[in-house]
Design goal:
alpha/beta; Pyruvate Kinase, Chain: A, domain 1; 5-stranded mixed β-sheet; 6 helices; 5 strands
Amino acid sequence: MPNLLDIRRRIRSVKNTQQITKAMKMVAASRLRRTSDQAIRARPYSERLFCVHDTIVERMPELSGPLYRRQEGKWLLVVVSSDKGLCGAFNSNLLKAANNWLKHKGTEHVEVMPIGRKATAFFRKTPFTVVPGLKEPIRDVDVSTAETVAKLLLDRYLAGGLQEVVVLYNKFKNVLVQEITFAELLPLIGDSRDKAAVNGGVEHLAEPNAQAILDELGPKVLLTQVYQALMESTAAEHAARMTAMEAATNNAGEMIEKLTLDLNKARQAAITKELIEIVSGAAAL
């Protein structure tokens, strides 16, 4: 059995760790409130924009814009991870899904653009072709960050050599559930995200014409998809971190109780040993 000094040091160390995990849980909870509200409030706008866009696309006899043209080339997977760890299986599940998807498509037929330090570090060690993404970590998701990512994807797609751009991210469902989601970004073919909404949509009067509207609307749809994915991923990250830190705090509490029990047992054993030595010494006299 460890001596009293070792057990006391262990208890002190676990208590310090518990204070850190508790503080991290509180920080994640405060950030989750803001980011989850931001992501949830943006969903109706995104869905309505996609519905209007897809309704116009469905009623177009022919699409001629560069963003609506399928071309030969590779698949580009945009993987949105976190910059920091200590968020449970948030990154590991995401990177496992990305790795499986890329292997299914074939190493020579895919490229990957990591967003976030965890994804960047992971794909450096893989045989997949890595396309540079954001150079700086994402502190707060805003429109300018989404515009930077959308411009990178737009320029890469318009340069040719890509047949499809797909984004992979964790979608925020609730505090305990984050759903791994694949979403096609380019081309903007409009595969009818919601067929019922498209078919039941309103006939739009277009000036000067529908194609001119799509030329303006297409980049905004891409930007909205990227912005929504970043917001969902950020909210899911804070939810996963809050859950992980709460579990770590509870585990630390259980460990402190166990170590305290061991400390009491060791103290009682030491006292008993001293009493036996005293009694044995007195009997010898």
